[in-house]
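User: quick one
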Amino acid sequence: MYAIEIENLSKSFDGLVVLRGLDLRAPEGQVYGILGPNGVGKSTLIHLLLGFLKPTTGMLRVLGERDLESIRGRVGYLPERLRYHLRYTGREYLRYLGRFNDMREPDLSARVNAELHTVGLIDAADRLLSTYSKGMLQRLGVAQALLNDPELLLIDEPTSGLDPAGQRAMLDLLAEVRRRGHTIFLATHLLDEAEQLCDTIGILFDGKLAREVDMRALRAPGSDVTISVASLTPELVLRLQRLAPAAVRCHGHEISLRPNTPALQARVLRTLLDADVSIVALQPRSNPLEELYLGVVRGVSGEPSSEPPGVETVGDASAAPSDPSGAVQPARPSTGDTLLRELLGRENERWRKPDGDDR
Amino acid sequence: MNTLRRMLSFVIFTLTEYARSGRILIELLASVVFFYLFLWRWTAQPDYFFSTVGLFALGLTFSTISAMQSLGDRPLGYLILVRRIGRGMYLLGLYLAALLIVLALYLLISLGTVLLHRITDLDARTWLLGTIPLLLNVALLGALLTLLAPMVLVAGWRLAILALVAIAFSGNLLGGLVMQRLGPLATALEVLRTIFSTPLLPAFTGFALSVSQDYSGIGFAIPLAQLSLTLSLLALAVYAFTRRELIFSGS
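Assistant: Done. Structure below.
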């Protein structure tokens, strides 16, 4: 079951195309992050999901409903900018917002107090919002979004404009919210934020979903490794690449295994030791999400075989501008595990072959 | 029932915001100045009271509705509209909050007038008969301004409606000499003017009724016409607001 289903969604403003043929599915109970540079259309997408904007073409379904008016009150929204009615105290403001959602006393007061506790604002509850810091206002934003225990939370750039301490506090708070089991759709341009909070990340670029990443697979220990060696001769490079041409890359004194498997890693290490090569370091790939993201936004279209496990190539972002139809492949459910299994199987099969190339 | 309760909560919320912004003091001050200039210094007849207060109330409505709409037309509104209140109740809540302010100030002016005996022959019956069309005109102007708000209608439609209103009022702007020079166009303009000024008749006749308090003949139909036109304009505004894309100013 999906909390959000988007099919072939396009949105343009006075001829300026923001989203073109977007396909996306965010499963219930997960944190789906939409990652992309500023101005790529993340906030527009959230406003479309809230029904404030209307699609130019395509279909949107939120919590199983196409009529977005009917889901009012079932969705929580944390906006990007700190824009609140500053002439109320925190408690007054939350109470009013609760009343707009048909909450009644005594539940309303209990709920307001509970959320003020959750976000750490109970001591400042009776102060005017105009006296709150940016971090406090954003925490109040989380409280108002959670107030009616929504089935879906739409969060837009939650740490935007906050200082590092405020960002840390906000991320901790959102991690706490995540543990409650809400379905969350998070728009951000910050990799750390997405990496820490999300189960699945879709990279939005040029109006389309360029990549979809299963973060569990991406976070798997040792999924990709880099081996640093003292020296690497051309003959040895050839021998290593013959082990698994799709997965082994040599560059300078480094050998990258992407995707790595225990079997492949063992064979590479054996080959290096047999060749009497001194191994300096073996370390996991530093930041696969960053590499992937930069690859997308800089227009480097990664070959599927070189992607880390869990990465789904949804559309070719680099080819998008030259594609007049704007058509993309429909977004499919993430097949990161499938891809990993497939690569593992292929690798094991090769390893079992008695007369394989690698022998 | 829940819908009305939500709207009532929103009206109280908006009035609180408006009062705390200090903007209400401007209206209050304007009312005091008006009272001093037009009602304090001499005694007069009820027709004088209703004509001056009627015009002042329209000016106050224009100012208050505009201020209230700018309160509503801010990105802060998104947080309210994700809730069950809905767009229609949001717009009507802003409208009602503005009307309540004008009504309160009108009652204050009336009370001051009565207490200081500045209007002769102003009994409760006369006051009520003059007040009904006066307040309906306030509601009518408020509804028209709500329809013409930037968050309700896109610029093209606003201009079109304003053009129609301008044509309806063109009789007061274009004199006989200009009309003579227009030749055959003058006839066409007369026809258009008649057509487009017809919907404004309830407003004009309502003002006259407020001053004369003469409900004989078709007089009783005038408040009904005012009410019908007000409700029609509000329905149109709600329809337009719920259909359009919502991009608040400054978002």
